[in-house]
């Protein structure tokens, strides 16, 4: 559904404009409802899910046994912090201030379409991540069979 990299500017009120290429998808397929939450695996990054996709993720995460600390951490970062956002008339969504601050997202950010969701990266975290190469010792069996 979503694919591509877009440089984004966050305005002084903490809003970002949905890129033109995604506006129809967000309006139609997402019913103009996105859910923004933390990426529990990467600092400097937030996730934006279409609402229907989010409900599936939320239910899977909430089904994890709460006796394990890692499960509780994931539930807190994903479900506990989740906020429903709807684009305004100018196709802007308001990013929660607490999430922006925790991810270090200021004026400049990068929006990545990752298929079923968006990733919103702080400019600095994105640059650091994209400059890292994948080493030979990190290649998994699943990666080794890809024809790149």
Automatic annotation (TrEMBL):
<keyword id="KW-0805">Transcription regulation</keyword>
<dbReference type="InterPro" id="IPR003444">
    <property type="entry name" value="MraZ"/>
</dbReference>
<dbReference type="InterPro" id="IPR038619">
    <property type="entry name" value="MraZ_sf"/>
</dbReference>
<dbReference type="InterPro" id="IPR035642">
    <property type="entry name" value="MraZ_N"/>
</dbReference>
<protein>
    <recommendedName>
        <fullName>Transcriptional regulator MraZ</fullName>
    </recommendedName>
</protein>
<dbReference type="Pfam" id="PF02381">
    <property type="entry name" value="MraZ"/>
</dbReference>
<comment type="subunit">
    <text>Forms oligomers.</text>
</comment>
<keyword id="KW-0677">Repeat</keyword>
<comment type="similarity">
    <text>Belongs to the MraZ family.</text>
</comment>
<dbReference type="InterPro" id="IPR007159">
    <property type="entry name" value="SpoVT-AbrB_dom"/>
</dbReference>
<keyword id="KW-0238">DNA-binding</keyword>
<keyword id="KW-0804">Transcription</keyword>
<feature type="domain" description="SpoVT-AbrB">
    <location>
        <begin position="5"/>
        <end position="53"/>
    </location>
</feature>
<feature type="domain" description="SpoVT-AbrB">
    <location>
        <begin position="82"/>
        <end position="125"/>
    </location>
</feature>
<dbReference type="InterPro" id="IPR037914">
    <property type="entry name" value="SpoVT-AbrB_sf"/>
</dbReference>
<keyword id="KW-0963">Cytoplasm</keyword>
<dbReference type="InterPro" id="IPR035644">
    <property type="entry name" value="MraZ_C"/>
</dbReference>
<dbReference type="InterPro" id="IPR020603">
    <property type="entry name" value="MraZ_dom"/>
</dbReference>
């Amino acid at each position: 559904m979503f694919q591509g990299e877009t440089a984004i500017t966050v305005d002084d009120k903490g809003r970002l404009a949905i890129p033109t290429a995604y506006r129809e998808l967000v309006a139609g397929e997402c019913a103009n409802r996105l859910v923004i939450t933390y990426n529990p695996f990467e600092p400097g990054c937030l996730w934006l899910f279409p609402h229907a996709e989010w409900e599936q993720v939320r239910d899977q995460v909430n089904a994890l046994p709460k006796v394990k600390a890692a499960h509780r951490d994931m539930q807190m970062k994903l479900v506990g912090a989740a906020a429903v956002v709807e684009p305004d008339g100018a196709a802007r969504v308001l990013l929660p201030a607490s999430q922006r601050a925790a991810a270090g997202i200021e004026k400049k950010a990068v929006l990545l379409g990752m298929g079923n969701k968006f990733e919103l990266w702080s400019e600095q975290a994105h640059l650091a991540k994209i400059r890292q190469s994948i080493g030979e010792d990190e290649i998994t069996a699943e990666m080794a069979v890809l024809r790149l």
